[in-house]
Design goal:
By secondary structure, the protein is α+β, with helices and mostly antiparallel strands. Helix content is about 20%, strand content about 30%. Strands 1, 2, 3, 5, 6, 10 and 13 form a seven-stranded mixed beta sheet that branches. It is elongated and about 55 Å long.
Length: about 250
């Protein structure tokens, strides 16, 4: 994201090589994540795309910004060695334990009060009907942020979220052009594209439509076969380790 910000500032084309850990951005560009060398074909037989670039408090992001539970988990030192295990061991207490930190947010004109977790993405993920549809964004130039908020009031509602997914009353799924996150604290943990940071409140997320020029190979895998619907473990893994599940529909708790 930091390199993408420099490229956008100087209106230079940005080349993605899928040699990272998860390569979500590469996947959503249709690149071959199993063969990073194929990304270099963009230099000899490439085409240019214009995609959106996220902004959180003046810092660029290409995938997601996480607040609350998500950000708390990413801040833990043991998270890097065992992402899923750390998330699963911490999540129950972080959601319904004593002293749970809650955040308020305003997504355009919609108020999201007392959220335990909030995920903002550069364009929405998945489909409106399946929280675990594919783990990817159908497009990167839609000009909207994806927003996923979790608010549960006890173990029963947390279980309902795990079972019913996008139909749960504890989940809010929507899109917005501007998201402002507030808290009683002067500073809160924030995970930007998986990087653990702390930012002063309020924290504002916006989108710069088609601000980034991306050079990609003309021949690339494109759409992947959707994965089957996910369980709670999969949801946590996507949320704290990379993209969350977002769509253009709202369900309120």
């Amino acid at each position: 994201a930091l390199v993408a910000a420099v490229a956008a500032e100087h209106d230079l084309p940005f080349l993605v090589v899928s040699a990272g850990t998860r390569n979500h951005f590469a996947m959503d560009l249709g690149l071959d994540r199993s063969d990073p060398a194929r990304c270099l074909d963009a230099l000899t037989d490439g085409e240019e795309l214009r995609v959106d670039l996220g902004d959180v408090a003046g810092r660029a992001f290409v995938n997601t910004v996480s607040f609350g539970v998500y950000a708390d988990v990413v801040q833990r030192p043991e998270y890097r060695d065992d992402k899923a295990g750390t998330a699963l061991s911490l999540m129950p207490d972080l959601l319904v334990g004593d002293g749970v930190r809650r955040l308020d947010a305003r997504a355009d004109t919609v108020e999201l009060a007392a959220q335990q977790a909030l995920l903002v993405s550069n364009n929405p993920y998945g489909s409106p009907d399946d929280l675990g549809a594919s783990g990817r964004r159908p497009r990167l130039d839609g000009g909207e942020l994806g927003v996923l908020g979790i608010r549960v009031e006890g173990a029963a509602q947390a279980a309902d979220l795990a079972v019913r997914g996008s139909q749960s009353t504890g989940l809010t799924v929507m899109t917005a052009r501007r998201v402002e996150v507030t808290s009683d604290a002067d500073e809160i943990p924030v995970a930007v594209d998986g990087e653990a940071l702390r930012m002063p409140t309020p924290v504002v997320c916006t989108l710069r439509p088609r601000a980034l020029r991306v050079l990609v190979p003309r021949d690339r895998p494109g759409t992947v076969v959707p994965a089957p619907p996910v369980n709670w473990r999969r949801l946590i893994d996507l949320a704290v380790g990379g993209p969350g599940r977002t769509s253009g529909r709202r369900t309120h708790g």
